[in-house]
Each structure stands twice: as C-alpha cells, then as structure tokens.
Amino acid sequence: MKKQPVIKIRNLTKKYGDVVGIKDLDLDVYKGEIMGFLGPNGAGKTTTIRTCLSLLQKTSGDVKIFGLDSHEDSIEIRRRTGYLPGDFGMYSGLKVKTILDYLLSQSGVSDKSKMKGLAEMLELDLNRRYGNLSKGNKQKVGIVQAFMADQDLIIMDEPTSGLDPLMQQKCYDLFREERDKGKTIFMSSHILAEVEEVCDRVAIIRDARLQVVEDIDSLKEKMGKKLEIEFENSVDPSLFQMEGVEDFNMNGKRATMIVTSNLDEIIKKISQQNVLNMSLETFSLEQMFMTYYSSGGKGDEVR
Amino acid sequence: MKFGKVMMMELKNRWKGLTIFSIVILLLIAGLIQAHPSIAEGFEDKLEGQDNIEIRMDETEEGNITITLSWSDWAEDKEVDRYTVMMGRGPSFTTPLLEEDVGEVETWQYTLLKENDEIPERYFGVVAHVDGEREFVGMETSLEDENGIEDIWGIDVSDIRGMISMLWGMWWFLLIGLYLGYVSVNSVSQDFEERRMDIIFSTPLSKRQYIIEKFSVLSLYMLGLLAVSGLVMIAGVSSVGELDTVSSSTLFLSSIFSLPVFMVIIAASILAAVYFEDSKKAVGFSFLVILVQYGINVVVDLGEAFEYLEPYTIISYWNHESILFDEIYHMGDFFLILVLSLLIVLGALLIFERKDIPA
Ligand SMILES: Nc1ncnc2c1ncn2[C@@H]1O[C@H](COP(=O)(O)OP(=O)(O)OP(=O)(O)O)[C@@H](O)[C@H]1O
Ligand SMILES: [Mg+2]
Q1: Burial of B237 (0-12, 13-18, 19+ CB in 10 A)
Q2: Ligand 1 centroid to residue A46 C-alpha, Å
C-alpha cells in the first residue's frame, strides 16, 4: 500500500514583506508517523507550521492537509487537527479548567476524559489560575490542549520547551503512544536528542530552505563511522576506492574516511599497510546536524 | 460551529470590570435624578425676591410692551411709607436706567419700547421704605423665560426631561463611550497581545464568527446596561414625583434608543483593534473618533453657522430630546446608525480575514 500523506506541502513560500520566512518548501508527512522539523533559530519552522494552519497567508505554493486546501478549508482542517503553538498565552485570570473546557467545546468535543487523563499524566492541576502557573506548567496546558480532542493530526511547535527532562520523557512516551494509535504528528524542534529519540523521520531546514528529509534510522546508518589512521608511509589513495568508503582524505601520512559499510574488507585492506595509530568513532547525529546547521550543509541532498 | 462560546469567554474574562463600570453608571444616574429638585430650585431662585413680584407683559397697539409690576401680596400687613422702583440692564441697580418714587401704591406700569423688533432685556427692582429704613422687595425681568436662563445647549435643566437629556448628550456619550471604546479595543487586542490568537484559532472557529461574537457580546452588554439604566431612571423620576412630567415608557425608550450610537463605538473600536493590532494605537484611534464626534456635536449646538456639520456626528441621530420632550421616535435615524455599526463590523472582519495573525 502506498503511503498516504496527511500533510502535503508543495512549493510553499511565505514572505513577510521582504523577509523570506520559508522558500519553495516541498514536504510530505505521512499518516501514522512522527515527523520532526529541525532547524536553527529563524530557519522558518514556525512560519511553515502557522501557514499550514492558515494563521498566516501563504505567498505562493500549495498546502493540502487531509487532502483539503489549507486556506479554503482551514476550518475543517482545524476541526481535525490539534495544535500547540510555539509561543502562546491564555486568559491569565481564568482557571485552567475553564480555558480547556472552552477550547474542547469549541472543537466540538464533549468528552473530557482524555483531558483529565492527560492532566493527570503530566501532573497538571486544572483548578489553578493560568496566570499563576510556572512556565513549564503553562507548556503542559498547551500539550494537554493539543491532544485532548483526540484529533487525527497533531502539529506542535517546539512542544517540550520549558519542560524538565522527566516531563520531556513523559511527553515522548505520549507522542509515541499517540502515533501507535494511528495519529500523525508533525513537530518542530531545536533539540537533536529529542528528534533522534522520538521522531520517525526528520526534515531539516536552514535559511528558509529544506536541506534534507530522511528516516532517522537510515540517517544514522548512512552517517556511518569516522575512521582515522596514521600510516608509517604515505599510501596510494586509490587503494581505498572501494565500497563503503566515503570522503577519503589523505593528508601526509594521515588518512580520514567515513565508513558506511563493508567494514571487514576495509580493515583487511588497512592491515596490509604498517599502521601507527588508528581510531574509529561512531558519527553522532549531532555532528551531522552541525553539518547541516552550519553553512557547509550538503546542498545536493535537497530533494 | 455553535454561536456564543466566544461571547461567554469574553464575559468570564471581563465581568468584573463591566460590573464595576455598570454600578458606577447606575449610581450616577440615580444620584443626579435625586439631585434634580434642588438643582431646579437653584435655577428658579435666580432672581432675588422674584416670587414677591408679579409681572405682566401686554403688547400695545404700536407693538410695544406694557410692563405691569405688582407686589400687593408682599405688602400685606406691612406699614410702608413709600416705594421706589428701579430699572436696569442687569440684575444689579448700581447705575439704574430709571429710578422712580411711586408713593404708596403697590403697582407700577411702564411701557418698554421694542429694539430691533425684540423686547429689550430689562430688570426691575422694588424697594420699600419702612420707618426710614430701606427694605428690598424683589426683582423681575422682561425676559420671556421665567428663569432668565437658557444655557447654550438650549436645554432647560429645571425640567427633569431637560436634565436627563443633557445627561445623555453631554456626559453619557463621553463617559460610556470612552469606557466602551477602551473595552472594545481590548476585547480583541488583548487576544493579540497576550498571544491567545493561535490558541483561539486552533479550534474550528472562523475569523468572521470571532469578530461577530465580540461585537455581539459588547452590544448585548450595552443593551443590558441601557435597559437597567432606563429602569433606574424610572425609579428615580418616580421617587422625585416627576412621573407626570415624563412617562416611564418614554424614559425607558430614551435610554434604549441610544443603543445604535454605542454600537457604532463598539464596531469602530473593534475595527481599530484589528487594523492596528496594537492596543495603544487602537485605543488612541477609538478615543479620537469619540472626541471628534462629541466635539462636532458641541460645535453644532453653538449656533446656526455650524448647523451644516450636524450630519457628521452620530449624536445627531440619537434624538433623545425629541423622545423625552415630544415622544417622537425617529426610526429612520435609529436604523441608519444601526446599519452604520453593522457596516463597520463588516469592514473589521474583512480586514481581519485578509490579515496574518501576528505570532
Ligand atoms: N511577523 C514577521 N515579520 C517579519 N519577519 C518575520 C516574522 N515572523 C518571522 N519572521 C522571519 O522569518 C524567518 C523565519 O522565522 P520563524 O519564526 O519561522 O523561524 P523558526 O524556525 O520558527 O525559529 P525559532 O527556532 O527561533 O522559533 C526569520 O528570519 C524571522 O525573522
Ligand atoms: Mg519558531
């Protein structure tokens, strides 16, 4: 069965006057996955998310959610989508319960059991005034609010900001649990570890442009290991033109390469030389992200 | 999408402020009506001893005026040697135009010549001489109006209807208008400024419905306040015993009929809020509109030279005077202003629908 896109973004451009928020974005988010949306400050994550929900008017391009036009059918889309804004406030003089009841009934849901369950799980007291809550507790209200109506698609802008590590972990459990029930989640983040832990796929943007979209697993695999060898004598680089070796670099008697597969044969090839020193380290996503974040990103991987 | 939840939320968020304001307004209305008898008395006693002298003005064949003063009621059981009558241009007789000894008679007649076809403004004073002492009997004036006073708005405040009318036109428009403008701007711009818009519009609520509900809830609040104000006026006027001057239904309707004027203020303030997004600018704009409207009304009342400005202030379409004094209801004006307020709301939602919601 062909994978079914819940969010389908084509050629999306949003400009704020002269400032480009997001440029020519193509992105699909499939049913039942958690898609991470990663990028440095000002990359265009919030812009993309708010355009999808028609809070911003797009400059050009096309966004379809559930096959519906993001602008024309935004009301129907919002009926079926939970949204956690990156930066939000609520009625500070009112009780959390009053606010959530209002939002839930606006979504046309009368069953409050999920709201109560979520609040309990996140240890959130619904009887307190919103204005008196700490930053993290306010964020919890946002998370409860995004999931309480039990909608098919949840869009979140930096969902765990302000939460302590324990709470973050609870949220990741929640996200996975919802995904396993068939929900689709699209969330932005700065936090690599978060994306690595919770997302199935990740889209990385920088300077308003998409850099790469990948499965987290294959990304990890693809990044392989970084191998550094110090030889006694200089060696012929063509010796290492073999399967599984990328980015081979010879600097005097030092060689560096990225090993993605075929490790056994590579080691055997190395053992034919006199080796003085050698190190093999696993590339972390962190290093990869730094590559994309900094200006030396691999532009050729943009789809 | 069910209608009314945004309205409920607005009330839950704002009821304290609205309640306090309503109480202040109702207390002011009650207090001013209670104060009316003494205010009216103040105006009636304008001239010293005016009650002691009766004045009659008869037109002569030549079109002049014969003034007849008599003070026989005052003179009863008094041993008066003689009287002196004085006439002046004002109510003090330091340099009288005329001073006449009239002997023991308790009446005096004088023919006043018209100037430019109008009766000249003259004041008359009567002094009695008793046992060699001078005793002031009283004053009268040739002015048609018994009080000798008409303010520049042409309203007779000694009449309860005049006072209520002045209250509406001069104070209520400003007091209620400015507060309402402020609240209306904030009902929308606080959602911007406290970053609630994203949350509010994460639900399937249309921008159109949002604007209409904000407008409706404030209009309904105003309707409620005006209805209760009407009742408080009825109770007040009845307690000062003036219900035969103006009927309770007239009082009530004079209050209710101001609703469209306030709806225009609500609508214009909401429009300012969505246009400027910034509450300070929007409140500034709203206040400017209200003050300009009020200012035009004041200028129009200054004289005929400014009457051409009359169509440009919504206060002109309110007609509280014709309702209170003549029970004439200008339904055309009423609906004109009502439609105007709806058009402004339409403008507000068209602006809002085309706008990005700021993050
Ligand atoms: N209302 C606005 N007016 C003008 N420029 C804006 C506006 N909102 C965002 N931008 C610009 O658009 C670009 C993308 O911003 P956006 O908020 O989408 O980034 P982001 O990826 O969400 O960043 P962050 O991680 O800091 O939340 C930035 O250059 C930002 O300055
Ligand atoms: Mg952002």
Answers
A1: buried
A2: 7
Chain position carrying tokens 């090839």: A269
The rounded distance, in Å, linking the Cα atoms of B272 and A162 is 35
pTM: 0.80
Band (pLDDT 50/70/90 cuts) for residue B44 is low
Residues 6+ apart with CB under 8 A from B156: B145, B147, B150, B162
pLDDT, tens digit, 9 for 90 and up, residues A104-135: 999 999 999 999 999 999 999 999 999 999 99
pLDDT for residue B325 is more than 80: yes
Q: Which residues pair with B124 in a beta bridge?
A: B87, B140
Using CA coordinates, name the residue in chain B closest to A84: B199
* B359 or A83: which leads in pLDDT: A83
ipTM over 0.85: no
Span B288-309, mean pLDDT? 88
Best probe residue, ligand 1, of A20, A45, A57, A210 (max atoms within 8 Å of C-beta): A45
pLDDT in tens, A275-297: 999 888 766 666 666 666 665 44
- Mutate which: B5, B192, B203, vs A, most A CBs within 10 A: B203
CA A224 to chain centre: 21
CB contact under 8 A, A46 and B359: yes
Residue B259, CA distances (Å) to B264, B292, B297 in order: 9, 19, 18
Phi, psi of A96 (to 5 degrees): -55, -40
Ligand nearest to the CA of A39: 1
Nearest-by-CA chain A residue for B357 = A55
Bridge partners of A227, per DSSP, are: A257, A280
Helices (H), chain A: 45-52, 74-79, 96-106, 113-121, 135-147, 165-180, 192-198, 216-223, 263-271, 285-293
Closest by CA to B264, choosing from B171, B166, B168, B177, is B177
